[in-house]
User: What shape does this take?
Amino acid sequence: MILKAFGVKWLLLCIVVCLPGVFSRIKNMPLTPQLETCYKRFSNVSLNRVPGTFITWHCESSISLSKIPFRLPKSEHHYLNGLNRRIMEKSKNNRGKRQATRCVRKEYRMLTTQERNDFHRAVNGMKQNTIVRPNVYDALAMLHSEMQILKAHGGPCFLGWHRVFMLMFEMALGDEVPGVCLPYWDSSLDNELENPAQSYMFSSELMGNGDGAITSGPFAGWRRPSDPNNPNSRPSPVLRNVGADGQLYSRESIEMILSRSDTSEIIAPNSDPDYDIEVHHGGIHIYIGGDMEALVTSPFDPFFFLHHGFVDYLWELFRIKLRNQLNIDPQTNYPMNHNIEFHSRDELMDIANFTCGAGYSDLLMETVEYEASPSCTQQRPTCDSPYLRCQLNTGRCIPITLQETPLPMNPGSGPVTNPPPVGPGLPPPVGPGLPPPVGPGLPPPTGPGLPPPVDQCAHIEQERHNVKPCQNSYCVNGICDINQWVYVPVKVVTIRPPEYNRYNSFPIINGDVSMTNDIYNPSGYSRTKKIIQGRLGKTPKGYTHCFEDGIGQIFVQSQGLNYEGFYKESSVIDQRLATTMSIAYVAVKNPGRGVTRALFRASDSCGRVCHTSCKNPRTGKFEPCSGLIELDSRYPRMFSKNYGDATLDIWDYGNGNGMGNECPMFNDDKFFLTFYCDYQDHLPWVDKMSAPPMMPRMGPKPQPPPSFHTQQCRVSPTCVLNTPCFSASLQCRFYGETHQCAGACGHYAVCNYGHYKEKICIGGTVFSETMNRCTSTPCGGQVGDGLPSWHVFANAGANYMKSLGSRMLSGSAGASAGASIFGGKR
Assistant: This one.
């Protein structure tokens, strides 16, 4: 019996050793229901239309909620509730008052020096104000980082939730420095640069450096809040990895969003990602990187509030279009036909008593107005900012770079008229105040306000700096220490990028150089063309500033599922080759005596996602898998305690004394996960084209807009232009194009993102059509072609706004939510 028992033990031991799959030390897990649902929403979307990382970030950024360390103590919520009560009171007091005081939100670089200094002082004041724990700034940021994430993202509540959040932040700013308003950051201006990371926005004079910890600018030395459960732990500095990954807004993407005609077309769940305002906003979170890349930490960087100020501005432009062009009340245009948890119209935001539907109320905008994004014209080639210069061919204001000094201020007080015609065959405009002409045979223009001459060798410098590092915080559940992490090796297999046309190394055939294909191009050989090129579908879309120069970068990352922590690294690849392999080491939380669960993902530097494959423990083959990995500390361990050990665990250097001459041996047994970057045009974790068809929109039926003469363009109820709209979807094309409103002496409209924005001359003065600017002449009497005077238009506008508030509180579809906030009964 003893021998028999002994034999059974040996048999069991043999099973454990010979069949590692029985007691797996690392294994793949199925997709969580939340991820699977989100992925399926996009499974019928071809990734040749939108960068894949926009979609994956949208779905994955809020998956870790069980271990969020930044939870505001309940005792501190009374401060936040107080902010909301004051927002309600101010909104009600402002309602319908023509001369009500409003915060004018400007593009950050359009602030005066005093306004900018006051804003910086107010933000730092919030960080130092400890009337609530840990301080006012972090208390607000922690509100975003709680379970609110599920209500604030992934559905139609996203827009209203962040609108209320911005109002709360703005109220707190004013408490520190009276009169300070929240500026916004129009990142599409920076996107016009060849390298947006070189924008002066990241200078010490403005928002500070973008590489690693913030060490310059008004927020130098900022840190996250301490973990309340470990108050003596030293928190991580606020981090950025600007320009390593992601993409800023492009003017094309903004115009696409604003071209839609119903809120359900720009927000989940029935929106197309090409037009989804939340999907596109994620690209900026990724672009700033560091703390901004993870939702639970993003508000700890002040960039968060400037970015979301711009998101709110775009939404307001969309709401203006709904009302003024389509006769749709944006308050009632809340997407209803969906089953997204926490995003129903009557769902409480948990910010005081606001509901998601109430976040769409016009009353929230009674205290705020937006100044249009800066633009310029040929006749006014300045942007009224030392940090912006005029891009003459578009009328856009683009930033100066870090290599330049701020421009001398030139208010450009001369006449402002519509731009003269420009184009092929037309002479360049010349005259006082205009920049010198450019063209073949002409010397490049130089001088203040003009970009520096183009360096013909600039691409060499760009290639040299193509590979960018990632600075990680090494935080696990609020404790920031590299010793809490372990390293998991992964393989990265890539094929040659589809758009990498050729590498200038050509075969010689029969004594002549054949330049059809370089020697590495798989299209040049029948077998590789069939097997490798045959795998490709439609070429996935990359970032605006994506380029291939032979050196590629694959970003690999882990995101905790049962812990709060995020890690990002990259491997460098040779883009010349038909297929290449590299190794990356991805850090995750040390499992200790428990288990670590994490989501592993990879994408290239153009935002094109990679597939995940896991090793089958029985067959040894790599098979498609979810990329959700669970590992523990049982032997043989599939991780290493630090990067150095991870390297030596993969490359066996023999006796370990460093004195041997033998070549290192490659240990393939340490790999469980492989990323395949083969440029597929659909998400790899759900079946392609399996998503159900888009559900029909429910809600108020749009009424046809009032008809106007074909030579007139309707901007608002108080502004009609004696010029036709550009098209049915776009009112105008040239940024800064300006026209007077017919019969309204002090009203005029300026083109911004394809739509006119109405403006009014201060003090009831006349807008001059010939001078294209406000004058010192007061308005009065009948003007123009018999249309009502400016005063009549102004009164009509005030009455119109009053009626909106009355309708909302007395029986419109938004009445119950609005009344609960602004003093009514539900």
